[in-house]
# Entry
Amino acid sequence: MALEMDSKNSNSAVTGDAAAATTKTNKAKENRNLAGSKKNQSQNLVNGNGTAADGPATKKKCKKNRNKSPPVSADEAALSNGHVEEKKPEGDGDADADANANVVAVKDEKAEGGDGAEAAELDTEDIDLDALHDAGIHVNISCPGSELLTVQLSSMELVQEIHQLLMDREESCHRTCFSLQLDNVTLDNFAELKTIEQLESGSTIKVVEEPYTMREARIHVRHVRDLLKNLDPADAYNGIECTSLTYLNTITQGDLLDKKKTRPDSVDCTPPDYVTPGVFEPPLLPLHPNFKNAKGPQALKVLTTSAWNPPPGPRKLHGDLMYLYVITMEEKRYHISACSRGFFINQSTDDTFNPKLDNPSYLSHSLIDLLSHISPSFRRAFQAIQKRRTLRHAFERVATPYQVYQWAAPILEHTVDAIRAEDAFSSKLGYEEHIPGQTRDWNEELQTTRELPRKTLPERLLRERAIFKVHGDFVTAATRGAMAVIDGNVLAINPGEDSKMQMFIWNNIFFSLGFDVRDHYKELGGDYAAYVAPRYDLHGVRVYNAVDVEGLHTLGTVVIDYRGYRVTAQSIIPGILEREQEQSVVYGSIDFGKTVLSHPKYLELLRQAGKHLKILPHSVYNERDEPVELCSSVECKGIIGNDGRHYILDLLRTFPPDVNFLKLQEVKLSTELVEMGFPIEHRHKLCCLRQELLEAFVEDRYVNFIRIAAVHLQQLNAKKPEETQSEEKKQLPAIEEAEKENKENLNVNETPNDKENEKEKETPVETKNAEAMVNAIREAQSNVATSNEIQAAEVVKQACAAVGSMKEKEFDFRFNPDVFSPGIRHVDGEEGTSGSVAKQKLLVQDAAEFLVVKQIPAFVKEHLPHSSPPIDGQNLTESLHSHGINVRYLGKVIKTLGQMPRMDYLYRIAVMELIVRATKHIYYTYMQSTDSMHLSVAISHFLNCLLTNGPINPIVSNDEMHKKRGGNGGKHNKHKSSKGGKGQQQPAINQNGGSTTSSSSSANAYDWTLVTPRSLWQQIRKESKAYWDWDLDCDSMDSAMNKFGIMRICLLRAFCLKVGIQMLLREYNFDSKHKPTFGDDDIVNVFPVVKHISPRASDAYNFNTTGQAKIQQGLFKEGYELISEALNLLNNVFGAMHQENGSCLRMLARLSYLLGDAQDALAIQQRAVIMSERVNGIDNPSTILEYTHLSLYSFANGHVGMSLKLLYRARYLLVLTCGEDHPEVAMIDSNISLILHALGEYELSLRFIEHALKLNLKYFGNKAMHVAVSYHLMARTQSCMGDFRSALNNEKETYSIYKSQLGEKHEKTRDSAECLRLLTQQAVLLQRKMNDIYSNGKLTSDLPPIHITPPSMGSVLEMLNTINGILIVQISQRDIVKVRSEIEKHMKANTDVNEAIKSMVAAANNNGESEVLAPQDNNKEQAATAQQLTNTPQANNNRSNKVTKSYRIVSPNVFWDC
# Structure
């Protein structure tokens, strides 16, 4: 770990004049995590980024003539790509390469399918991909005292990566200070292997021990400490070193891939009590299973630096570097000296300094060797630790890109740890003593990486990897600095000013607090506006970074919420601190528009970005009444740094304002909005529309534009012969009818009684629309050339006017972000033109209305089928954001959901999210008025008030309280609102949106003791009404439970994650009447909630989307290849651990399963589960879905018991997160029931399927397929129990649903009828026997026996596939071709619409006065950019979560819900 930190930092100081070196060193930095999967002699050495060469060996089969590396076992799988190379028969290579469609073949098919542009893009990169997939070489490595090691290397890797490999191997992990030599020549650590002339396949590289320096000795000691602590989960619970938890191997009791298939009669399938249906409050302890045994054996009692350090002058001259003190498990005490040759025992004692060699001294180059000599217990324990370490999955040992915090943690033993103490109290800011130039210049690193070349694929990969690595380091440093600022450990740069106005610089990062200093936001909402401004600014930084205009620079920005304070961390523009802001700004305004500046270079750069962000260039008057052109909001400031770069900052108003939350006299909202309560006066005036909304709005207008253009094109042909006219009249109503039907489809305010066939209804309507438009446009287009060009121009003009285009003769939708900003004087253009302020205002109003009228109903409609239901508030928020809906509309969403019984679960999740957010506002104010000495008591008191109705008695001594009230409040809470001044009446509460009754005296550190459950819930009600315009109508936790069905443990989890509280892992009695539920000991820690941008991997994203398109067409193998390539590229950019990698792994596992390779699916999905636990969290909704997928693949591989355990874990986590009343619980219960049924546990099985049926009836209606399957499963179970009458009744329900939905002749209906016949036969037979026994006292008649046959594992798997959305149907090749041609025809129709409009607009524009851009080109470009801009991990994770149901109805065609 020490060497990792060394390489991490020594290579990260990126300078502007060393861009080329940057790429190389950043590659080395990335590699620190890797080497984890190399265990045996035959190795695949992978770099930490998993270059495409290391990929699924890795799926290099898509290149026919490429050299393949030999197959490796699962244990030796390359870490970078996260899945194993498939073992192929020797003669199968070429055939398989053909079958799996190389990239060129994929491109050809894309061209046929109308995706020629993407194909061309892939074509241009083909050479680059060949370069990435270079052939590997085999190298021997000779280590002192160990056998010769043979590894396979990629020629693109660095020598540094061999260091990482050796440091991870069991026999060589204790070495840190060594060099690698080839033919007695020392190799450069940062040289690529292909640049070493003498290196060839079969060469032997020798490991040579090097003399220690002080720095190397410290690194070695740190590495030894990390090896000994490797199994200890303390760092993961404490949230440091980017470590996190995973429990998959604990649940499965070892590696799933090593398990043997289990016989049904040998499986222990009894579920824990908390998993069986009917549990209301699930326990908390199972969240962290077996944590007591996770630590591993103890090797030493104490390993610390000695108090005799540093060596005195005479000893330095003898080579002493440092002294260590060790207490072994045998209670022996040793003082150890570190010298240039290694480590030895000296003769010092605790009282006497005698640094001479002891007898024997055991001089060893490695401290591990020395300790093994002197302590047998150490030797045994270290071997056990190493064995367990190497048995862990590679993904368990790699650091995550960002820290994941646990909301619950056990009591951790606090041990002596000198390294930890040194890190905590030393003045260093990271590991800067290892970096030339000491502290890191974050701004220079962030900007230099963005300036790296990006023309070819390898260049882009190196650039994106460097950006990601530097950004990750910056986030870590900013988080640590923000915590230090709030804890009072950083001196302010303006210490004489009020604490709220103080600013800080730490580690070359600028920190400011979320308060309104100098009344900067006075007119916009004061502290409220100051609190939300950093978040909006971060959003602006994200979108400008995504556009990635060359030459336009943004600041590194991280927003941290910690202990109730919001801290903004930013990189520092060179020279900004040396001059006043007025002298620095060359573009924009520093006083909200009173003085405005512009700059030609900024106009050029921002105009490029504005095309993608849909920002309209506009002019405003400055203080001298001169028009000034702007291409952004007025608040956006342009500063040219001392480095000559053009920076933009204060991007909080990048997008137009939301007029639904602004009370403006000149704005008249529609009647519909007014009836809904708009406009609502928000507490600040910075409300903006989301970028996703603008994209959806423009897309909607573009569809209308096409329709209207098609109608007008038909009317151009009105002078044709009568027969043509009559035909046109037939077509025109067809278009109008199609449009009408489409509008009706958007109406979701109707009662959702018959929504089961929603999807089946949508597809024909969309096809009908497309075909009608294509036919109309084609026919009219054939006459455009001969018709008057003026008429053609008129068509475009009328269509543009109808949809409200900003330009008269071109489809153009861009927004003026300043159009409603107070105090800004706009230059008004001609009415009807893009310069018209009235038109700009109307467009912004239309977009805000579109959000309420179209997007909220569209959001509800999307979730009606419950195909990908949100599981918690985070899921819900991501889904709202993907539709462009801000969380401030949550109250309106709740009102809509409340009218729909089938959306009850989503209604409950939304209400809980609103309660959590309202409570967060109050909590932040509460925390600011709390003394740091009493944080744990105050937090526990707050949780008692929120979640219980029992006794609340915060334990603070009266003497102390009296002393405190009489004093000045102490210095522990230096940032709380100070007495006097302007902030006295509205203290820190304002910036958080809280509204506490006792806030006016928040300077008093004990006001928190006055909070009661009643007063807190009154504040929550008040806050929900003020912020979301929704009446909560609850005055206690009990009333919230009774009214909404919210569980207290779910609310506790959601609240802790939202505000950063870590609870003690124990069972809490919420109904305690004698003592408070929470005590001060139950608050283990508080952690920061960090918001930052997420750098993209653009090429991987393109491969992923192309692969998903192939899957939609049913081309599974081609899709598999493309997504494998995407995974390789993601590994190259992000390293082994990232949310995006997990999404790709899940998709690959699903594809492997659909292609019939269940074993490969299991191996890949295992990695996906571990990665989700590590990167998202052990109880994240994504992790729950990963567990359910893994259980299916486990069952398919014969691991029946493991499959049940995984389902039990998924169900527990799901109930802990959102309760039992959820559609996903129905699916999991159906799976559990089916497997229990297969194992003969009929009573247990019946309990689960009854619960699943109840939920399915509630959420899908009594005629849905889900319900039919549930009835059928109940019938099967009851028949096996001998209850034929009940089984018969349930199967009748199944038959009734199939008959009404599918018809009598459908196979499912016929199967159900046959099942009914058999059940009837058995029921009659049983009744006869019962009657015989009843009448005669014994069985007299010779009736045939009753047959109860348990189901086969094959039939159970088939039914599991059905439940999980995989329907496999045998179909002829001719029908496959027919269906595929229909799909291609439908896709081509959509393409032809665009092409027809393109031709028509071009013809119209030829007659125009100016050359304009064809509207669909503009739209395509913007849409492509929009896809990239919204490509955040959250968005992608949300998107990939939807791939939970796949319908393999036509082999190989799939309808994939994604």
